Amino acid sequence: METKIEKQFDLKKDVLATKQDLSEVKTELKLLIAELRTDIANQKSEIIKWLFIFWVGQLAAMIAIAELIIKR
Question: Coiled-coil ranges per the record (predicted)?
Fold first, then answer.
């Protein structure tokens, strides 16, 4: 009986997770989530910067077009 149990345990040992395994995975997930949040924050600021540059460019283009129309 014990040998059967040991054989079954040996077969399933690769699939089983211990509390330590789960805590390591949890720690890794927390680190990945923190890194992802940092990346998202950086991307948000980058997008805001480019949107501002775009708006300034559009405003300059509209002013230039308005001046051309007024001078005619």
Answer: 19-46
